[in-house]
Amino acid sequence: xxxxxxxxxxxxxxxxxxxxxxxxxxxxxxxxxxxxxxxxxxxxxxxxxxxxxxxxxxxxxxxxxxxxxxxxxxxxxxxxxxxxxxxxxxxxxxxxxxxxxxxxxxxxxxxxxxxxxxxxxxxxxxxxxxxxxxxxxxxxxxxxxxxxxxxxxxxxxxxxxxxxxxxxxxxxxxxxxxxxxxxxxxxxxxxxxxxxxxxxxxxxxxxxxxxxxxxxxxxxxxxxxxxxxxxxxxxxxxxxxxxxxxx
Length: 247
Description:
The protein is mainly α. The protein has 2 domains: 2-120 and 222-245, no CATH class; 155-194, no CATH class. The chain is 80% helix and 0% strand. α3 runs antiparallel to α8.
C-alpha cells in the first residue's frame, strides 16, 4: 500500500506504471488539496468567528482584531509562497530526471503527503482542543462554586443559628426553624436579588475569560497552515529527488 511505502510509490511513478492505487491517488488529490486549504482558511479566520460569537454576549471591540487580521494575511501569504515554490522546484527536478508525467507524479505525491499531514495535524488539534476544554471546565467549576457560595451566604436558617450559637436562647428555638424551608427561602430572596448584579458581573468576567483564552490561541493556530505548507514543500521536493534516484 502506497500510504506506508513511499519507496514503492516513487519507483512505480518513475517506471510509469499504472494501477488502481495510482488512479485513486490521482482522483483523491484535488479533494485532499481542497480539504487542506479549507482547514487553512478556517484557522486563519477563526478569530473573526470567535469575536462574532462572543459579540452577542458582551460588548466592546477587541483591540487585537486588526493586528490578528494582519497576522492572518501574512501567514496566508507565507503558506501560498511555499506552495508555489514547491510546484516550481518539483517541476525543475522532474525535468532534470526524465521530464515525463509531471502532473501525475505531482498529484500522486500530493495525495500521499496531504493525507499524512491532515491526519497528524488533526490529531494535534484534538489534543490542543482537549487541553482548552479542560482549562475552560476548570474555570467554569470555579465560577459555579463562587456563585453557589454567594447564594448560600444568605441562608436565613444558618444566619439565625450562627447568631444564637453562644446565647441561652439557642435551646428555646426549635431545630426545624434552622432548616431552609419555603419561609426561610422567601426571607432570603431579597438578599439574593441584591447579589444578582454581582453574579452577572462574575458571569461577564467568565465570558470575557473564555473569549480572551480562545483569541489568545490565534497566534498559535495561524502557525499550523505555515508549518503544514513548509512540511509539504520539503516533503514533495524530497519525493521528486527520490524519484531521480530510483530506477
